[in-house]
Write a structure and sequence with these properties.
Number of strands: 0
Largest sheet: none
Number of domains: 2
Shape: elongated
Number of helices: 11
Oligomer: single chain
Length: about 230
């Protein structure tokens, strides 16, 4: 599996829950400094900052759980020629914050991480963190494809869906994620009329008398004023 396959699954409805985490304000998903060292900034009221700092001072994941998550999120969003891996942009830190910001995730997340060790022991007689990459992928493949998974893996599929959503939510809350998606944000543009090839196709053209007054980039801040006859006066 690769990142493009995972994104295809996300955006074609194979994942049960939504990509966006509704309790995350835009400022909290796009900090100007690393989340764990400073909390959210910009547009936050003092009460929100205090709450964030309290959550950031607490620890949910154990070191072993973070190791498991690091392995999995880099499978979901691996490094490629266009962008970094999930761990490189702090996705596990993002999940750590979400576990405390939205406690309803805690029990299913921890249960799924425990299930990994159970499945690892059943298949290979060792803990998940001791598995080779090939062995890890054997377990992942059991739950990563909802339509292909065996009935006995229904719980594992639901958990991996949640993990995949959290991974992508965290990843695409970063500058690297925005660049990968080609997201440009709100940017000023210039509309210089209907393209000539479109007008030619329909047999129409711009009126000559208005060519000199059509919007130019340097005039975008100027408000046009027209008289009662429709003539431009300033």
């Amino acid at each position: 599996m690769n990142r493009r396959e995972n994104l295809k699954m996300l955006f074609t409805g194979s994942i049960a829950s939504g990509l966006l985490l509704t309790n995350c304000a835009p400022e909290s998903t796009a900090p100007e400094t690393p989340l764990l060292s400073g909390g959210t900034i910009g547009g936050r009221v003092p009460e929100e900052d205090l709450r964030d700092q309290k959550l950031l001072s607490e620890i949910f994941f154990t070191d072993e759980e973070r190791k498991k998550l690091s392995t999995l999120v880099d499978i979901i969003m691996p490094k490629d020629s266009e962008s970094p891996a999930a761990t490189e942009v702090g996705v596990v830190d993002f999940m750590e914050f979400i576990m405390k910001d939205q406690p309803n995730y805690q029990t299913p997340m921890r249960g799924g991480l425990m299930w990994l060790d159970f499945e690892s022991d059943e298949k290979f007689g060792k803990k998940f963190t001791e598995l080779s990459q090939a062995e890890v992928l054997q377990i992942v493949d059991e739950v990563a494809w909802p339509e292909k998974a065996k009935p006995e893996y229904e719980g594992g599929v639901r958990w991996f869906n949640m993990l995949r959503n959290l991974t992508c939510s965290g990843y695409f809350s970063t500058e690297a994620g925005w660049k990968y998606m080609g997201y440009m944000g709100n940017q000023a543009n210039v509309w210089d009329g209907v393209p000539k090839e479109v007008m030619d196709k329909h047999g129409v053209s711009l009126e000559e008398k208005y060519l000199s007054v059509y919007l130019k980039p340097e005039d975008r801040g100027t408000v046009a004023v027209w008289d009662d006859q429709g003539n431009l006066i300033g």
